[in-house]
């Protein structure tokens, strides 16, 4: 299986994040990608290739042009008002406030285009996020070229980012951009299976009213875990997309044995849907050692996950999402890829 990776993704290197209401050392850091890349090489998963640079219009197929422009111009605007350190959003247009006005100040724009205060932005965030989206697009192109599988070693991750907002360490929805690209290049039914510990709220929302992109997600119950405001079992799609979203919220403390039945159910939906390609939003944060998560996967369980996904039997691309136990991240990620490859 080929791995797609760009060094440009390492340029987004936050020092701190706001977590649990306080400033802490950032966990979504370049070392995540570096350990996965090293393990891909050490365990000879396959060639590592650089992404192509895709035109912005592919990102704008799932993201609002004004949001994309905001990200592109962010650092210039942030420094223009005298700020020099990395940025965090801090004011939001919640219920009763307006989102349709023209805002000039960067603080207002930052809140308008974000969902949380936990996602640091820096001088190089835009170009890294762009390279991350290009990484996913290149993996999608590999499937279109006839490869049976591909690994997009994406960072920053994507599945919390929506049509016009960032959040949860995510800026562009890499899996969503790739799914739309596959649709735009002749495939009719795409399935996204999100196995990150956190619900993929951004991806779900992008395709909620569409039957052509199935969204399945297994994650920590949002009543107890981020992102709190989406990912419940009664969210099953709307309009033409009714029935094409499925969520399996699971309790904190879930181990592989308790997770496997939900995975089986998700695989049954895949069997019925018969996608022409599958995109796995591959978070590795269900791991027992993850510093911000509450599931209990062991490293071997990731082999089982890969094996089960292979049995679905469709061309599959893996898009890396979360996973913050740096020491085990390479092992866990490559376990999925090896389990899949057999
Ligand atoms: N106490 C991804 O895994 N904050 N994003 C958690 C922990 C947000 C995770 C706070 C976590 C976002 C891609
Ligand atoms: Zn996650």
Label this structure with key terms.
binds zinc ion; Arginase, Chain A; 342 residues; binds N-{4-[(3-aminopropyl)amino]butyl}acetamide
Structural commentary:
With 342 residues, this protein is an alpha/beta fold. The protein has one domain (2-341): Histone deacetylase domain (Arginase, Chain A, 3-Layer(aba) Sandwich), CATH 3.40.800. It is 37% helix and 14% strand. It is built from ten helices and ten strands. The chain has helices spanning 30-42, 57-60, 65-80, 106-112, 125-144, 174-184, 201-206, 256-273, 299-312, 326-341, and strands spanning 2-4, 16-19, 22-25, 48-49, 149-152, 190-194, 213-220, 245-250, 277-282, 316-320. Strands 4-1-5-10-9-6-7-8 form an eight-stranded parallel β-sheet, sandwiched between helices. Strand 6, helix 7 (201-206) and strand 7 (213-220) form a beta-alpha-beta unit. Helix 1 crosses helix 10 (326-341), helix 3 runs antiparallel to helix 4 and helix 8 (256-273) runs parallel beside helix 9 (299-312). The model has no long low-confidence stretch (mean pLDDT 98). The structure holds N-{4-[(3-aminopropyl)amino]butyl}acetamide (Q9C) and zinc ion. N-{4-[(3-aminopropyl)amino]butyl}acetamide (Q9C) binds at residues 19-20, 118, 157, 160, 168-170, 196, 198, 226, 283, 285, 292, 321-322. GO terms for molecular function: histone deacetylase activity; hydrolase activity; metal ion binding. This is Acetoin utilization deacetylase AcuC-like enzyme.
């Amino acid at each position: 299986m080929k791995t797609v990776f760009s060094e440009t993704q390492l340029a987004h290197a936050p020092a701190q994040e706001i977590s649990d209401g306080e400033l802490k050392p950032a966990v979504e850091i370049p070392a995540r990608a570096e350990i996965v890349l090293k393990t891909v090489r050490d365990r000879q998963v396959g060639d590592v290739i650089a992404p192509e640079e895709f035109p912005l219009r592919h990102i704008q197929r799932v993201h609002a042009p004004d949001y994309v422009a905001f990200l592109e111009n962010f650092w210039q605007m942030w420094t223009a008002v005298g700020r020099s350190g990395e940025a965090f959003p801090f004011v939001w247009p919640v219920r009763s406030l307006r989102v349709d006005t023209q805002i000039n100040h960067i603080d207002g724009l930052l809140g308008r285009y974000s969902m949380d205060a936990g996602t640091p932005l820096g001088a190089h965030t835009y170009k890294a996020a762009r390279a991350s989206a290009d990484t996913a697009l290149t993996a999608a192109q590999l499937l279109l070229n006839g490869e049976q599988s591909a690994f997009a070693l994406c960072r920053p991750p994507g599945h919390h980012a929506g049509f016009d907002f960032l959040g949860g360490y995510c800026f562009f929805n890499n899996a969503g951009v790739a799914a739309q690209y596959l649709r735009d290049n002749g495939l009719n039914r795409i399935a996204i299976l999100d196995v990150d510990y956190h619900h993929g709220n951004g991806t779900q929302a992008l395709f909620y009213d569409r039957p052509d992109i199935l969204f399945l997600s297994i994650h920590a119950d949002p009543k107890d875990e981020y992102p709190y405001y989406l990912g419940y079992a009664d969210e099953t799609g709307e309009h033409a997309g009714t029935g094409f979203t499925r969520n399996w919220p699971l309790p904190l403390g879930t181990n592989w044995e308790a997770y496997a039945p939900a995975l089986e159910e998700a695989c049954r939906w895949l069997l019925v849907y018969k996608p022409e390609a599958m995109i796995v939003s591959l978070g590795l944060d269900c791991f027992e050692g993850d510093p911000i998560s509450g599931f209990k996967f062991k490293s071997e369980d990731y082999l089982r996950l890969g094996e089960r996904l292979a049995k679905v039997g469709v061309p599959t691309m893996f898009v890396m999402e979360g996973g913050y136990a740096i020491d085990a991240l390479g092992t866990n990620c490559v376990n999925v890829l090896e389990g899949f490859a057999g």
